[in-house]
Amino acid sequence: MNYFPLIITQCYLCVQMVAGKVKKPGKRGRKPAKIDLKAKLERSRQSARECRARKKLRYQYLEELVSSKERAICALREELEMYKQWCSAMDQGKIPSEIKALLTGDEQKLPPGGSSTKTTKNKNNISSSNG
């Protein structure tokens, strides 16, 4: 029977009261394992290599995206310029052949983009490549 009070006192000594809460001695959480320093350094280097590779891919993607947007902007500027020319021609009382074709329903005669100068260039390229 003498053992019972001894066990209680030993357990009581292991537990401390801090700010009304029971606190056990020692550090909480997982103790860090003994990791080899060289292995940790190599993992860090590998992680840095992968990070640089991801960054390079991200920048390549963004550069391709920017160049495609720039090409789209150039195409839209050309189209806007064509419409401006059509408007100035109509202000002078002339009706461009492209608009006449649209009004008569001869859309098949129009080249993609609607510019008549492009058709002459394309026809020249086609005839020179065939002959």
UniProtKB/TrEMBL annotation:
Keyword DNA-binding found: yes
Q: Name one GO molecular function term.
A: DNA-binding transcription factor activity
Residues covered by region (Disordered): 103-131
* GO biological process terms on file: cell differentiation
Question: Which intervals hold domain BZIP?
Answer: 37-86
Which GO terms of the cellular component aspect does the record hold?
Answer: nucleus
Does the keyword field hold Transcription regulation?
Answer: yes
> What family does this belong to?
Belongs to the bZIP family. ATF subfamily.
Listed name of the protein: cAMP-responsive element-binding protein-like 2
Source organism: Xyrichtys novacula (Pearly razorfish)
